Amino acid sequence: MTKLPTLPAKSPQAATEKVAEAIALAIHQHRIVPGTKLGEDELGEIYGVSRTVVRAALQSLAHIRLVEIKRNRGAFVAQPTRAEALEIFEARELLEPRTARSAAANATLEDIALLESHIRDEHNALATADPGRAVHLSGLFHVEIARIAGQVTIAGFVETLIARSSLIIALYWRRESALCEKHAHHALVKAIADGDGDRAADLMRSHLVDLHTALDLRDRSVPARSLKEALGA
Amino acid sequence: MTKLPTLPAKSPQAATEKVAEAIALAIHQHRIVPGTKLGEDELGEIYGVSRTVVRAALQSLAHIRLVEIKRNRGAFVAQPTRAEALEIFEARELLEPRTARSAAANATLEDIALLESHIRDEHNALATADPGRAVHLSGLFHVEIARIAGQVTIAGFVETLIARSSLIIALYWRRESALCEKHAHHALVKAIADGDGDRAADLMRSHLVDLHTALDLRDRSVPARSLKEALGA
DNA sequence: CGTATATTGATTGTATACAATTATGTGTCC
DNA sequence: GGACACATAATTGTATACAATCAATATACG
After folding, report:
1. What would the pLDDT profile of A192-230 be if each residue is shown by its tens digit?
2. C1' nearest to CA of B72: which nucleotide?
3. Which of A117, A159, A220, B28 is deepest in the core (most CB within 10 A)?
4. Predicted-assembly ipTM surpassing the 0.90 threshold
C-alpha cells in the first residue's frame, strides 16, 4: 500500500474524522441517498460514539456541502439542484484542466502507478456490478490528480467539487453512458506520464464536458433506505 | 400569551456562528496575529459561552484554514508559508477574473450601490488610520463580487481564499504600496456597472497581479498580544 | 367535517463533568 | 551546571445531562 505523498497527513485516530469519513464514504457510494435525514442519536448508536463526535462529523461534512444542516431540524444528505449541478461542473472545468497540467509537470513514477491502480480498481468495481463504488473510485482518481499537482488549496477545492459531483451523479446520472470513463482516464494518465501538460489539460477538459453532458436534469426520485441498513457495517 | 406569528426574530441560537464570526473578524482585522494560541477556555470566558460552542467555532474556522488545529494541542491562528501565499494568489488569479466577468453580466443597480459603499467604507478606514479594518473591507469587496456573480460554489472558494489572503497580508505585506487599491476597485466597479465583462475580468486580473507582486516574502515577525486585550470588546 | 389551537413527544443546542493527552516544574543523579 | 525521570498542572477529547426548539398528534370550536 503506497502512502499519499502530497496533500493530507491524515492523522490516524480521530473518532470524529473516522465517523465523518464513514458517512462520506456511504454517501459517495450511494448507500444513503440525497435527502436522507441523519439523526445524531441514530448515527451515534451505529458507530458507538456519542453525539458530540457525530455532531462534529456532520458539521465537517456540512462544510464540504455533502450534508445540509438546518437549525434545530438536523442534518440531511444534500440535494443539489440542477442549477447547482451545472455550476459545479463549470467550476470543475475551470479548475481541473489546471490540476491536470500541473500533475503532468510534477508526477513521479510512484504517482503514475497509483493512478493506474485507481483505474484498475474502478474497472473491477464496474465488472462486479458495484456502480456506487465505481463512482467513488472515479472521484478518487480526480482528487489524486489534484494532489499530485501539489497545489494544496486548489486540491481542496477539487475534493469538495468531486464530493458534490457524487451527489449529482446519484441524482441526475443517465445510466446508458457509463463506459467512456475508463478510456478517458487511461488517456489522461498517459499524457501525465509523458509530461505533456497541454494534452493532459485538453483531455481533462473534454472528459469533464463528456460527464457534464451525460447528466439528465429531469427529476428522478431515488428510493430511501434506513440508516441502520445502509451503514450498519 | 400566544406568541406572535411570522416574526422572524433572530434566535440567539446562532451562538456558534457569532463566535466564529467574531474570531474571524479579529483575525481579518489583524487584532490577533498568525501563530496565536486560541485556548478554548479562554475564548469561552471572553464570549460568555461554553467550550462546546467555542470548539465548534474553531473547527469551522479550521475548515476555511483561518486557524490550524493540532490534535491534543489546540487551535492556533494559521501561518501560511510563502509557498502557500503564492499558491493562494495563483488560485485567486484563476477564479476571480471569472467572478468579475459573471458579476458584470448579473449586477443590478442595487449591487453596484453596495459595492460603491464598500469602497467608501474602505476609504474611510484608511483615512482613520485603521489598516486592519481596511484590509478586511477590501476582502469583503472581492467576496461581494463573487456573490453577485451568482456562482455559489465558486463564491465559497473565493471567500476562503480571501480569508487566507488576509493572513498573508498580515505576514508578508509591504507597507509602501497601499494606495493602489482604491482606484483599482473603482475602475472594477465601473466596468461591472457598464456590463463590460471582458474589461472587468482584465481589471481583476491585473489588480490581483498588483497585490501579488506587492508581497514581501522575507520573514517578518509580528508582535503578539493577549487574547483578552485583542478580543475583549 | 374542517380548521385552529394546545399538549405531547422527539430532536437538536448548550453546558457541565470526566478521561486522555500534553506541557510544565521539580528533584535527583551524573 | 546540565540532563533525565517523575510528578503535577493545564488543556484538549469525549460522554452525559439539561434546556430550547420543532414536528406531530390530540382536542376544542366553528
Report:
1. 999 999 999 999 999 999 888 888 776 555 555 666 666
2. D12
3. B28
4. no
